[in-house]
From TrEMBL:
InterPro entries: NAD(P)-bd_dom_sf (IPR036291), Sc_DH/Rdtase_CS (IPR020904), SDR_fam (IPR002347). It holds the Pfam family adh_short_C2. The keyword Oxidoreductase applies. Keywords: Oxidoreductase. Belongs to the short-chain dehydrogenases/reductases (SDR) family. The keyword Oxidoreductase applies. GO terms for molecular function: oxidoreductase activity, acting on CH-OH group of donors. This is Uncharacterized protein.
Length: 219
């Protein structure tokens, strides 16, 4: 553990979530909101669900507007987890332009628009957090999922540049790259043989669990 005496490392302490407003895109919103609200008073819910297309700038703006209006506070945290893939697992040669554009529209353009809005509207001066979601596929480079992997590589690049651009604002930008998580998106179009292959490649011999995956953001 680094100590103050070392004089070389400045640690940013983790902050409590009490009285901080967060926007979480994608990520099984009903599950996230129900978990949060189950721990709060039924008359004063702490989470709401709002529908928006993150690839549309006006709808991304409306997410921030809604959060500020409902909770009467500037937004402190953005977790951008919205993403799509192609369940057909096509090779690059067989990937349609329409599917490529759809994946990049949500995964890369959506991340850009959410980051752009957050960089301009998150509370400055400390406590602002931007968390983007990439994928372990960016490192493993598995065939059959090139468009999705490339879109997540773009997310990682944006995160690194954004973190530098936010210097002095008190806002941090980080990216997490999970392995396969047992979500609806993962199982869509996958047969049992494919799922078993993926599980066999996992060090723990199982898929990631959504409820635990959501806690990574807080860490």
């Amino acid at each position: 553990m680094a100590s103050e005496a070392s004089g070389n490392v400045n640690l940013i302490p983790s902050l409590p979530l009490q009285d901080r407003v967060a926007i979480v895109t994608g990520a099984s919103p009903n599950l996230v909101s129900s978990e949060i609200n189950s721990a709060s008073s039924p008359t004063t819910p702490q989470a709401i669900v709002a529908q928006a297309d993150v690839s549309e700038p006006t709808q991304v703006k409306s997410l921030f507007d809604k959060a500020e209006e409902v909770f009467n506070s500037p937004v402190h945290i953005l977790v951008n987890s919205a993403g799509v893939t192609d369940p057909k697992l096509p090779s690059i040669a067989n990937t349609s332009l329409e599917d490529f554009d759809r994946i990049f529209s949500v995964n890369a353009r959506g991340a850009f628009l959410c980051c752009k809005e957050a960089a301009n509207r998150l509370k400055h001066g400390g406590g602002g957090r931007i968390v983007l979601v990439s994928s372990s596929l960016v490192s493993s480079l598995k065939p059959g999922i090139a468009a999705y992997t490339a879109s997540k590589a773009a997310v990682e690049t944006m995160t690194k540049i954004l973190a530098k651009e936010l210097k002095g604002t008190g806002i941090t930008a980080n990216c997490i790259a999970p392995g396969p998580i047992a979500t609806e998106m993962f199982f869509a179009g996958r047969n049992e043989e494919y799922v078993k292959r993926v599980i066999d490649d996992c060090p723990l011999g199982r898929l990631g669990r959504p409820r635990i995956w959501h806690r990574w953001w807080g860490f």
